[in-house]
């Protein structure tokens, strides 16, 4: 029994062990199996990655970025109408830096090396630049400027705004840098800072000019020899605008921003949308600005291939670029120089006359009346040098379009034609010239009592009364001695609308910015309508006078004036002119609609002014071979010049002098406007307008004669008129077709 019990227990024990042994391997096998499955899945996944997606991931690892960089090219040149270079580009050595992904400490190290090799102007370094540099050079001291407690307070203030927090801490650090600490920076530190400042002001992968002024041959050579030690630095050739005729016409030619200025902030969006870079030089005034897109040229393009880290792997040229297209101006620079000299001499001579303390400027504009081409645009102004106290003559050619004045009787041709159009006078209408006494108004009269005058002689003698009577009739009034003179205010609009057809009081269309249209008197009192008719109420520019007299000269076409004659492709050899890209054709802005014979009446009156005894300019132009026609002007005005503040609320009365004309009187080839503001106060008229006008027309025809003798004739004026008429007829046909459509 005991034996059986023992045996049973032994069997049970063996069975338990057997069961236990069979259970453990099962778990282990399950574990191995699971591990096997996981490894199988991992191997399968790795296989999928390598076999199926391997190429994609390889491409991602090796992924590069293509960054296209534009390099500026020299601007286009400017020539005068005879092919003489006016504005060119002068090459100059330059040192540049291109940020190819360099870190701040790397750029600073290069700046330190470069500072050992070149001189650099440190005047541009500002206090903020010094503080930034001090922080870079003294990071430990800078960190102590702001305490942990202050940082914690700032964290609460800018919670969740890391950028604002960093900015606040940095600003606090800057504010606590003392003058004594900044004085620790030595001259060599400032040189490094000036260079580093240029490095950091550029844009990634875009060459930034470090120095392009006064780079000596020694500096250029030593930097070139050490380029391997100056990563990002390069030596190249830059350009600078060169003016072949000095200051002649310079204000009209305009200016270009420097490499430091780049694109003006107010025009940044405009230029960036046209593929410009922020540091590109652009035209910032007048012709340089007006024709920026022509002169700027096609940039050289280079593609930089970079890796994900921004490192440049390869540079591939795309286009070489081409300098800007050239402009051929309508200006004749020989004539321009002669006119400027005449203005200077006559302006100085006039200043020697009594009553000329306020006289300081004069303007002359010559224009082809058939094409609108500006042949000469000259102006001079006497300015006192604040340092030396001496007076000097400055270019003020822009005053022809940017300043306006009362011009006086020069506009009486427009008054006569307005009277014809309104039907208030007819050709050969006679009006008795005598003083007009309007109740409670000073006597209004001509400079002499002429008695009966017709329209032609009214122009010849410059009768004010003839023009007053014409204006009274336009205003539906009737003059009676010492009685009130009520006039319809609509007469102002009638006269001004008519004057505008000649270019007076409106934009002329000149291809230059900032043209002024003039001041229109606000009062509608009857007496001012009479003043308007003789050019003593509204103000006009000398450009408007030139356009107005051109309408008289050519028989009724208001031509759009332009100073650019042609756009040409650039050529590199010997300043030669390339093929024509665009030629500026004559453009008629409007036609003054007149009945047959009306314009001839005014033209005859203008002829008598200069060629017939008694004419207001006869003394100066009698017997001239070129047989001119024109009209003088003298206007009573109030001084409004640079000395205006000295006179308080009552500026002194002055006399403005003007002269318009053209020559020859038959088939004219040149129109002229002369304006001498604030010519004198009281005293005697020194005739500067007529003296300048005479000498200018003499110079024009003398130059033409000399060129003829040298075999350098320009186009025959008669043939030119025929050619222009063909162009104008073509334009008229186009307009008629458009209207019919």
Automatic annotation (TrEMBL):
SUPFAM superfamilies the UniProt entry points to: beta-lactamase/transpeptidase-like (SSF56601), Penicillin binding protein dimerisation domain (SSF56519)
Which pathway does it take part in? Cell wall biogenesis; peptidoglycan biosynthesis
Give the catalysed reaction(s), semicolon-separated. Preferential cleavage: (Ac)2-L-Lys-D-Ala-|-D-Ala. Also transpeptidation of peptidyl-alanyl moieties that are N-acyl substituents of D-alanine
- What EC number(s) does the entry state? 3.4.16.4
Q: Where in the cell is it found?
A: Cell membrane; Membrane
Residues folding into a coiled coil are: 144-171
Its record classes its membrane topology as: Single-pass membrane protein
Q: Name one GO molecular function term.
A: penicillin binding
Extract one GO BP annotation from the record. regulation of cell shape
Basic and acidic residues bias locations: 707-719
Task: Mark out the compositionally biased spans (Acidic residues).
Answer: 729-741
* UniProt entry keywords in alphabetical sequence: Cell membrane, Cell shape, Cell wall biogenesis/degradation, Coiled coil, Membrane, Peptidoglycan synthesis, Transmembrane, Transmembrane helix
- TM ranges: 26-53
Record family assignment: Belongs to the transpeptidase family.
Name it: serine-type D-Ala-D-Ala carboxypeptidase
Q: Which organism is it from?
A: Cytobacillus oceanisediminis
């Amino acid at each position: 029994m005991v034996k059986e019990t023992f045996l049973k227990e032994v069997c049970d024990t063996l069975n338990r062990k057997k069961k236990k042994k069979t259970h453990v391997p099962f778990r282990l096998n399950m574990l191995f199996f699971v591990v096997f499955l996981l490894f199988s899945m991992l191997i399968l996944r790795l296989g999928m990655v390598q076999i199926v997606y391997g190429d994609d991931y390889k491409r991602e690892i090796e992924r590069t970025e293509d960054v296209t960089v534009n390099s500026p090219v020299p601007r286009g040149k400017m020539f005068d109408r005879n092919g003489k270079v006016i504005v060119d580009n002068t090459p100059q050595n330059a040192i540049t830096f291109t940020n190819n992904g360099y870190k701040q400490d790397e750029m600073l190290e290069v700046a330190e090396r470069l500072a050992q090799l070149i001189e650099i102007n440190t005047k541009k370094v500002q206090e903020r630049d010094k503080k930034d540099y001090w922080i870079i050079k003294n990071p430990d001291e800078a960190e102590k400027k702001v305490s942990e407690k202050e940082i914690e307070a700032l964290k609460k203030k800018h919670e969740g705004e890391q950028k604002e927090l960093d900015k606040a801490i940095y600003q606090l650090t800057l504010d606590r840098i003392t003058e004594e600490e900044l004085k620790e920076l030595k001259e060599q530190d400032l040189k490094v800072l000036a260079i580093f400042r240029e490095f950091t002001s550029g844009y990634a992968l875009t060459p930034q000019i470090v120095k392009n002024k006064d780079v000596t041959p020694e500096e250029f050579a030593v930097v070139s020899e050490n380029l391997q030690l100056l990563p990002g630095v390069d030596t190249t050739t830059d350009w600078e605008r060169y003016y072949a005729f000095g200051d002649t016409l310079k204000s009209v030619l305009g200016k270009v921003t420097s490499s430091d200025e780049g694109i003006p902030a107010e025009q940044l969006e405009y230029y960036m949308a046209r593929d410009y870079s922020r540091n590109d030089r652009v035209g910032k005034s007048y012709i340089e600005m007006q024709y920026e897109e022509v002169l700027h040229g096609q940039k050289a393009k280079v593609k930089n291939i970079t890796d994900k880290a921004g490192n440049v792997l390869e540079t591939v040229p795309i286009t070489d670029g081409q300098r800007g297209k050239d402009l051929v101006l309508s200006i004749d620079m020989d004539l321009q120089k002669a006119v400027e000299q005449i203005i200077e001499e006559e302006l100085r001579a006039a200043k020697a006359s009594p009553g000329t303390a306020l006289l300081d400027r004069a303007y002359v504009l010559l224009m082809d009346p058939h094409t609108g081409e500006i042949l000469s645009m000259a102006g001079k102004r006497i300015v006192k040098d604040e340092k030396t106290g001496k007076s000097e003559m400055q270019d003020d050619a822009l005053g022809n379009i940017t300043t306006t004045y009362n011009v006086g009787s020069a506009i009486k041709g427009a008054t006569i034609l307005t009277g014809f159009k309104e039907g208030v006078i007819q050709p050969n209408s006679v009006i008795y010239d005598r003083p007009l006494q309007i109740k409670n108004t000073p006597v209004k009269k001509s400079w002499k009592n002429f008695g009966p005058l017709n329209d032609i002689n009214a122009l010849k003698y410059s009768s004010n009364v003839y023009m007053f009577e014409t204006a009274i009739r336009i205003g539906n009034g009737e003059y009676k001695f010492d009685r009130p003179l009520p006039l319809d205010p609509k007469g102002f609009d009638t006269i001004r609308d008519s004057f505008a057809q000649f270019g007076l009081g409106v934009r002329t269309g000149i291809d230059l910015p900032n043209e002024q249209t003039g001041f229109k008197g606000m009062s509608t009192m009857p007496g001012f309508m009479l003043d308007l008719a003789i050019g003593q109420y509204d103000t006009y520019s000398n450009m408007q006078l030139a356009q107005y007299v051109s309408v008289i000269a050519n028989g009724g076409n208001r031509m759009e004036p332009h100073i650019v004659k042609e756009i040409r492709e650039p050529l590199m050899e010997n300043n030669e002119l390339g093929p024509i890209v665009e030629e500026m054709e004559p453009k008629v802005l409007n036609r003054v609609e007149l009945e047959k014979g009306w314009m001839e009446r005014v033209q005859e009156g203008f002829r008598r002014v200069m060629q017939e005894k008694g004419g207001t300019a006869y003394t100066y132009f009698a017997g001239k071979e070129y047989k001119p026609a024109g009209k003088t002007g003298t206007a009573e005005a109030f001084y409004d010049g640079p000395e205006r503040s000295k006179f308080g609320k009552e500026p002194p009365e002055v006399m403005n002098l003007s002269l318009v004309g053209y020559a020859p009187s038959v088939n004219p080839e040149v129109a002229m406007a002369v304006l001498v503001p604030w010519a004198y106060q009281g005293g005697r008229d020194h005739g500067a307008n007529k003296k300048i006008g005479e000498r200018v027309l003499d110079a024009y025809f003398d130059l033409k004669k000399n060129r003829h003798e040298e075999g350098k004739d320009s186009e025959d004026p008669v043939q030119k008129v025929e050619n222009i008429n063909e162009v104008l007829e073509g334009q008229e046909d186009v307009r008629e077709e458009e209207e019919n459509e």
